[in-house]
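Quick one:
INPUT:
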């Protein structure tokens, strides 16, 4: 979802790598190589031998609820499951290959590396040191970040939060999913106590291009400068889509998290973004992002 936007808007030619050739989805790419991130030595060889000067890793196991089922008591490679291999180990392998072959590397990451007790979080805030209050997804992504930092001191990490965009039917982001569920009459109660900072995906593309050009080192955040709640976000989005005030049920993430079957998610989450301004990147507020989404998506 995020990588496809980069492919469509990159200022530079891109050789894609992964499981699915983006050209089969109508997306532009100069070429494509099959690379499965769970095959560490193949990944490393691929990274080291490619001629490109920059590599960006968009790939991850991103389904937070399904990744939660892979949680284990001991996060070792043999016990950690697919998300451990793809989200935690593979970024370190890519970072090592990039370091050995002198390439600049950027890893995509998330505000789910924080426990959500004190967000929005700045680039300088420390990610949660234990998995206790994180989703397994968040823990594996944080372990991926840690390995990138260990293996490659010149790499960049770009964290985003609840990314949304227009025109990508293959996967609905949370915003387009809200509209689809509202229309189907299946919208659940919307949290009024969760705070987050949704990322307008074109901002992530612009941030990556700026980081690549500046060879930005370390952690960068790209997200809405103002926080919102799922309730507030849905209300404005559905007003803009239908022109009428939507009738929405209110819910509480804190109450939901008290139930043992609920996957942990940051309550006070989101990202404070300081560093991208220094690279000249304007970040889109969530209200402006909704207006852009509605203008581009043209829901009927
Ligand atoms: N979505 C969010 O809410 C969110 C929030 C914050 C941060 N992020 C981060 O942003 C990045 C992009 O997220 P996204 O939502 O665009 O993800 P996405 O739509 O789920 O895409 C993930 C991509 O990873 C590929 N992939 C998965 N397993 C692979 C493997 N074993 N080998 C090779 N490729 C594999 C998938 O390939 P196939 O197409 O073949 O399945 C897919 O193209 C991720 O790093 C994610 O952690 C996402």
């Amino acid at each position: 979802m995020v990588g496809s936007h980069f492919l469509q808007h990159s200022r530079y030619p891109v050789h894609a790598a992964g499981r699915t050739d983006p050209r089969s989805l109508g997306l532009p790419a100069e070429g494509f190589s099959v690379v499965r991130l769970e095959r560490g030595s193949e990944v490393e060889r691929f990274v080291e031998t490619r001629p490109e000067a920059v590599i960006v890793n968009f790939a991850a196991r991103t389904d937070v609820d399904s990744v939660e089922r892979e949680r284990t008591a001991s996060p070792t490679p043999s016990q950690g499951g697919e998300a451990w291999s793809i989200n935690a180990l593979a970024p370190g392998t890519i970072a090592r290959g990039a370091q050995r072959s002198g390439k600049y590397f950027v890893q995509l990451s998330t505000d789910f590396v924080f426990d959500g007790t004190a967000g929005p979080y700045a680039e300088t805030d420390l990610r949660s040191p234990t998995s206790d209050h994180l989703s397994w997804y968040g823990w594996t992504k944080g372990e991926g970040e840690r390995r990138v930092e260990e293996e490659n001191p010149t790499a960049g990490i770009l964290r985003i939060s609840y990314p949304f965009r227009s025109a990508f039917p293959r996967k609905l982001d949370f915003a387009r999913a809200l509209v689809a569920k509202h229309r189907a009459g299946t919208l659940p109660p919307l949290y009024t106590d969760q705070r987050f900072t949704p990322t307008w995906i074109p901002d992530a593309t612009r941030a990556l291009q700026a980081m690549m050009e500046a060879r930005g080192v370390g952690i960068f955040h790209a997200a809405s400068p103002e926080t919102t709640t799922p309730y507030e976000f849905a209300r404005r989005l559905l007003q803009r889509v239908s022109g009428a005030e939507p009738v929405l049920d209110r819910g509480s993430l804190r109450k939901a998290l008290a139930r043992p079957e609920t996957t942990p998610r940051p309550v006070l989450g989101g990202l404070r973004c300081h560093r991208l301004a220094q690279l000249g990147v304007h970040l889109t507020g969530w209200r402006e992002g909704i207006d852009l989404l509605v203008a581009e998506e043209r829901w009927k």
